[in-house]
Write a structure and sequence with these properties.
180 residues; alpha+beta; Chemotaxis protein chec; two-stranded antiparallel ribbon; globular
Length: 180
């Protein structure tokens, strides 16, 4: 039994596709596991050394290692390593004959850094990414499903205010039909 557990653990950690879902204490191998769902809004501070204490809930969901990268709208993406590899692979599969693909790949990957939290759950946000996102001391960390985003607090407040006005109006264009 120990050999089977070690093999299962080894296979699960060496692949980017989760193997199963635990439901009520038992493992159902027929149901593919979903990636962690990062949710919520948090307001930690960045200290003078550029360190950010990750929300405890995110630390548990992100695991030991993750990637910080340039995000859209001048935020910093915080991605589980598996999700970052999936995104990078998807971009790389696009045609390298396409200039826009090459440009995006260069900017996205050149600004990405592997990170592991310290014992207090803090990560160092490199100066390049702090400058890119214009991060000051006051930041907002939001869960956006398979990634988190780190925003400068005033920038996030402006962005949210702009988006909230049209939030209900764009739902039909963005959301697939759902049964409630």
């Amino acid at each position: 039994m120990a050999d089977e557990d070690e093999l299962a653990s080894s296979v699960a950690s060496s692949t980017s596709i989760p193997q199963s879902v635990e439901i009520s204490g038992s493992i159902d191998a027929s149901v593919p596991a979903l990636p962690p769902l990062l949710l919520g809004t948090y307001t930690p501070k960045i200290d003078v050394k550029g360190r950010l204490a990750l929300p405890a809930k995110f630390r548990n969901q992100l695991g030991a290692g993750f990637v910080l990268a340039r995000g859209q709208e001048r935020c910093v993406y915080l991605l589980p390593a598996v999700e970052f590899r999936r995104m990078a692979g998807q971009i790389q599969r696009a045609s390298l004959g396409n200039k826009a693909t090459r440009d995006y790949l260069r900017v996205f990957l050149s600004g990405a850094v592997d990170q592991e939290p310290d014992k207090q759950g803090r990560v160092v946000i490199p100066p390049m990414l702090r400058d890119y996102a214009r991060l000051g001391k006051d930041v907002v960390v939001i869960g956006v499903g398979t990634r988190a985003e780190i925003w400068d607090a005033p920038s996030w407040e402006r962005y949210l205010a702009e988006q909230e006005e049209g939030y209900s109006q764009i739902a039909d264009d963005v959301l697939p039909p759902m049964d409630f």
